[in-house]
Amino acid sequence: MNVPAAVDNRHLARRWMRIQALAGLGIAGLAALVAGHVAAYSSMFGALAAYLPGVAFALIVARRFGADSGAFLRAAVLAESVKWLFCAAICVAVFTGVKPLAAGWFFAGMGGVMLAGWLGLISNR
User: Fold this and answer.
1) Rounded distance, CA 8 to CA 12, Å?
2) Whole-number average pLDDT of the chain
3) Which is more confident, 16 or 28?
4) For the chain, which residues make up each domain, given as ranges?
5) Which of 74, 106, 72 has the alpha carbon at shortest distance from 91?
6) Of 53, 42, 35, 26, whose CA–CA distance to 112 is shortest?
7) C-alpha to C-alpha distance for 92 and 25, rounded to whole angstroms
8) Measured between alpha carbons, how far is 38 from 15 in angstroms, rounded to an integer?
9) E runs forming strands in the chain
10) 6 or 66: whose pLDDT is higher?
11) pLDDT confidence of residue 3
12) 37 and 101 in contact (C-beta within 8 Å)?
């Protein structure tokens, strides 16, 4: 059965976001078991600092799936810029407003969500 590219891309984007969300929750659960509640919420903030900008990226780019290549490229550049600015804003807000914060767990949550996203993109199921 032939599936249109736009439908397949939306399915892949949803799967990618689901994998990242589960990774963030898993790391927060692990942090809670290993190091306590400060580590758990620190890792969750880190996961959100990677996840929420990724959602913004997906929402901006998803509208341009199947469009002409110029429109898609403009949307991808805009989305990537928004993603970086949003991530930076979340990091600044967390590091200035959340006390106490376990910075190592924050970056573990952030890195884990990013890694899960990369691995989710290269897997074929």
Assistant:
1) 6
2) 88
3) 28
4) 8-122
5) 106
6) 26
7) 22
8) 29
9) none
10) 66
11) 47
12) no
Residues 4/105, Cβ–Cβ less than 8 Å: no
Residue 63 φ/ψ, nearest 5 degrees: -70, -15
Quote the CA–CA distance of 54 and 114 in Å, as a whole number.
9
The full 3-state SS of 88-120, as one line of letters, equals HHHHHHHHHHCCCCCHHHHHHHHHHHHHHHHHH
pTM attached to this predicted model = 0.86
Tens digit of each residue's pLDDT (9 = 90 or more) over 20-36:
999 999 999 999 999 99
The helix (H) or strand (E) run that includes residue 54 is helix 37-62
More confident call, 84 vs 10: 84
Closest to 108 in 3D by CA, of 19, 14, 44, 20: 44
